[in-house]
Design a protein that fits this description.
There is one protein chain. The chain has 212 residues and is α/β, with parallel strands linked by helices. The chain is built from eight helices and ten strands. The strands form two sheets. The chain has a six-stranded parallel β-sheet with strand order 1-10-7-4-2-3. Strand 5 and strand 6 form a beta hairpin. The protein is globular.
Length: 212
């Protein structure tokens, strides 16, 4: 079955790339994680200042490790010794050359949907870093905005609350309850439908299942 899903993804990838282009977003398609890693490193010049938001996808293709071990200036909040140092890194990240992240969902017509708790990821996507590079598995593709928001609320968010062992209704039920729990991670939604700055947003689609 996976073989046919991948064939389907190949069939629709060209149209999806055109949909992104209509929104002034440059998109690329990679068949494998290794191809995606090579393309990402091609897009990120050496000596660039790079940082990232929380994402399994950029780890899954090996991009974090490659940048940390390469000739780049890495702003890595995961290495911060305390809360203030973490905040300092997050603030410095707004002036980075590249901000790396994934998406919680994308639509067939090229809209990117993201959900955030603290807001550092969606705020950096919206404004700040010179270039935003999305690494997105084709499993994130949905039909439209309504489907994308449903995916975010009922798959991505519950999966993350389980990962972080948070006390929210969706941790128990697996479904969004539109809660106002102290542990709620559904605090900030960002819908990216157009990029006004030429070349700022790039999308690397990967014909693999990455993240959730």
């Amino acid at each position: 079955m996976e073989e046919y899903v991948k064939k389907h993804n190949r069939l629709i990838s060209a149209k999806l790339i055109q949909a992104f282009a209509s929104r002034n977003i440059e998109a690329f398609f990679s068949e494998t994680k290794d191809e995606a890693l090579a393309k990402a490193l091609e897009l990120i010049p050496e000596t660039s200042t790079v940082t990232w938001g929380g994402s399994f996808s950029i780890e899954a293709i090996g991009l974090k490790t490659a940048l940390i071990n390469g000739n780049y200036t890495v702003l890595n909040r995961d290495t911060a010794p305390d809360a203030q140092a973490k905040r300092d890194i997050e603030l410095a990240s707004y002036n980075a050359d590249f901000f790396l992240c994934s998406a919680n969902a994308i639509t067939q017509d090229g809209i990117i949907v993201n959900l955030d708790g603290a807001g550092n990821r969606v705020s950096a996507i919206a404004n700040g870093p010179k270039t935003v590079l999305f690494i997105i598995g084709m499993n994130k593709l949905t039909k439209d905005i309504d489907s994308a928001l449903s995916r975010v609320r009922n798959l991505a968010a519950p999966s993350n609350t389980l990962r972080f062992q948070l006390n929210t209704p969706c941790t128990s039920t697996g479904y969004c309850a539109d809660c106002k729990s102290p542990d709620c991670i559904c605090c900030h939604f960002l819908i990216t439908r157009f990029c006004r700055q030429n070349g700022r947003i790039k999308v690397l689609l990967v014909n693999e299942e990455l993240g959730f």
